[in-house]
Amino acid sequence: MHTSKLSFVIFLIVGLLICVAVQKSFAQVGFRVNYNYMNPTGEMGNTIQEAHGVNLEGTYHLKQTPITLGVDFGFGRYGAHRDFSTPIVFNNRTINNQNLEVRSELLSGFFTAKIDLYPQGIIQPYLNAKIGWQLLYSRFFFDGLNRSEREIMSDHALTGGLGGGIKISLSKIFGLQLDAFNNVFLNLEANYLLGSQVNYLSVNPPNDQVQPTHNNGFGNVYKTRNQLTEIKIGFGFGF
Q1: CB crowding 30-66: b at 16 or more within 10 Å, else e
Q2: 59 phi/psi in degrees, rounded to 5
Q3: Read out DSSP for 118-160?
Q4: For site-directed labelling of 84, which of 5, 12, 122, 163 has its Cα 20 to 30 A away?
Q5: Would you state the pLDDT for residue 145?
Q6: CB burial class (10 A; 0-12, 13-18, 19+) of residue 213?
Q7: C-alpha span between 125 and 121 (Å, rounded)
Q8: How many CB atoms lie within 10 A of CB 229?
Q9: 200 CB contacts (<8 Å, ≥6 apart)?
Q10: Residue 83: what pLDDT?
Q11: What average pLDDT does the segment 61-72 reach?
């Protein structure tokens, strides 16, 4: 998973450099902080639970256009399991089930493009498109004096999304202004995400309608299309 994490760090640095460069030329820079809910659909919806997490998006608005570009980073957890009744056999090792926890999480990195439909209103609708990667990974932990962490598996999927949202302008309602930003707003957004095939672990699948590729000792391993709907609720600063 270290290579995948490095890729996300590089993605973040490149995105920030783009934001800085554009800010110095012709764009208005902002950011959004959101609670992020991701609900798997299709075959994936039969294998893992929904994910809850956080989302941060840096944006820059192209002057005299309705277009806002950005970089979007998210984190969510779709599984945490402690109730293992017997020791786990994994990679020819026996792992004690006492104080054992398995966590399954998701990292996202996207380039985004938004088109504002009515930016002059109090309620400002927009369309959204995004393309990037999602990384699904699972680890196990031991609680205690010497806490250890081990990777179980990880995989990533090229993923695209379409959706839309609304900004509710607090600046227009309450006259709220910040020196660096001309609009402070509540942000509500929903997207449909569809990506390539991805492998992932599910300790407690919602049902058994999808055949796993194998069981690795901790739980079933599945390979399906990366397919989710996401809802973001938060605050934004900028255009």
Answers
A1: bbbebebbbebeeebbbbbbebebebbbbbbbeeeee
A2: -130, 155
A3: -TTSSEEEEEEEEEEEEEEEEEEEE-SSS-EEEEEEEEEEEEE
A4: 5
A5: 43
A6: exposed
A7: 9
A8: 17
A9: 47, 48, 104, 136, 138, 153, 155, 221, 222
A10: 81
A11: 92
Looking up tokens 């017997």 gives 86
Domain 2-237 CATH assignment equals 2.40.160.20: yes
Domain boundaries, the chain: 2-237
> What is the secondary structure of the chain as a DSSP string?
-HHHHHHHHHHHHHHHHHHHHHHTTTEEEEEEEEEEEEEE-HHHHTTS--EEEEEEEEEEEETTSSEEEEEEEEEEEEEEE----S-EEETTEEE--TTEEEEEEEEEEEEEEEEES-TTSSEEEEEEEEEEEEEEEEEEEE-SSS-EEEEEEEEEEEEEEEEEEEEEEHHHHH---BTTBS-EEEEEEEEEEEEEEEEEEESS-S-S-S--SEE-SSSEEEEEEEEEEEEEEEEEE--
Average pLDDT over residues 78-105: 87
Mean pLDDT for the stretch of residues 140-163: 83
